[in-house]
Amino acid sequence: MTMTTKSGPDTMCLEEEIPVGKWRILKNIGIISLAFLLQFTAFQGTGSLQSSINGGLGTLSLSAVFGAIVVSCVFIPTLAIKKFTAKWTLCFSMLCYVPYLAAQFYPRTYTLIPAGVLVGLGAAPMWAAQSSYLSQVAHVYAQVTNQSVKAIIVRFFGIFYLYWQSAELWGNLISGLVLSSAKKPQNTTTDYTLCGANFCSSNFDEIPNLDRPPDHEIFTIMGIYLACIFLAVLLLTCFLDPLSTFGLKQRDEEKVTVGHLLVATFRQLKRINQMLLVPLTIFIGIEQANFAADLTQAFIGCTLGIDQIGFILVGFGICNSVCSVLFGFLTKMYGRIKILLIGLFSISACYFLMLFWKPTPDEKWMFFLICGLYAVGDSILQIQMNGIYGAIFAKNEEAAFSNYRLWESTGCLVMYALSTTLCARTKLIGALGVLAIGVTGWTIVEFRVKNDKISHETKREDSPT
């Protein structure tokens, strides 16, 4: 099949008479998804252990990661994509994660913090390139198959997040198997009233379950993770087709400067819909930080021990993966509003359980229930918010997705920065407050989009034929 489309005002445009095969598009969706699975098997597995194996320094290093992402999101993504193209931006950005994993062999302030900053600088262009790549090929696929662009965007992001979310499964399974390989004495001196919502970093040294595992076990885990990253980069380098394969090319009529990109990024914030979506986007970052810093340390690690974190989170990974693809396809049947409401209900229920439940080793099933609810909420929020940004801001995708990562990372940064200062209960209550504001903003956006659509259809009907 060939497609003929003239160049338009968007950043990417279709050349004339370009042969497009839908299976080739799907192959590239699979390659980019598998690469991110490997990449985040390594990084998420490492991040889930940071607050437990490195204590305050580990949390501080994650703050450095997301602090750098906030800065990077402002201008690096668009600049990198225009300079290197989406494919090579992905490859170079993924390599920025290598020093952070290598620093785990010698975790000190002067190794972990700079390495965390490098991760942040690479993460923003990596995610922007991924979002832009998926959105652009979704538009091509929709034209080839004569389907709704919005439905295809959500479906492609659903497939992607099926892979990406399963990284939690594999990363935590690796750490769980390695950390549990040696028999460890059962701690019977832990005061479980210090765990859960009552957990405070000031009590870290009083909890035997949070003692650092032996170095050789941590080194084995990091060696496996490093191999995953190098394999991910190799896959993208050898098998991912550039966007030009599908007739998509970048405009180069005007010289791109950092100043122009700063203006473009902040100009996006002048859009009312963008501003209204900021609080819910921030919450997505907050809930990810809560998961990595509080659920793993304050609940699982404190109550069951660090060696059990990986195994408990395997359940989260399985549920997250299934929900990512399931709700991605269900969106086509029931619409994004109903699906997003399910996700908001799940994450809210999870937070209230975490607030009022007093964890003990005898109620191990509760950890799986909480992880399951968290997985449903997280997977739906990730897919639907990406879909909303891709659909509403289709003509400004790079600036929109840059803003998405900017505010998501801001939420992570704030929560990690407060991790060693505030107790778990305070952070959970604060997160629920941000969620309430975010839901209000999103509701207004949906009404605005609906009214704009009605207004557009009315004008079209009234125009002379």
Characterization of this structure:
This protein has 465 residues and is mainly alpha-helical. It contains twelve helices and four strands. A two-stranded antiparallel sheet has the order 1-3. Strands 2-4 form a two-stranded antiparallel ribbon. Helix 9 packs across helix 12. It is globular and about 60 Å long. The two termini are 32 Å apart.
Q: How much helix is in the residues? A: over 70%
Number of helices: 12
- Give the structural class: mainly alpha
- Determine the N-to-C terminus distance: 32 Å
Tertiary shape: globular
N to C succession of SSEs: EEEHHHHHHEHHHHHH
What about the largest sheet? 2 strands, antiparallel
Q: What is the number of strand segments?
A: 4
Strand content: under 5%
> How is the largest sheet built, in terms of strand order?
1-3
Poorly predicted residue ranges: 4-19, 251-256
Radius of gyration: 22 Å
Residue-averaged pLDDT, rounded?
A: 83
Features of the shown structure:
two-stranded antiparallel sheet, 465 residues, globular, mainly alpha
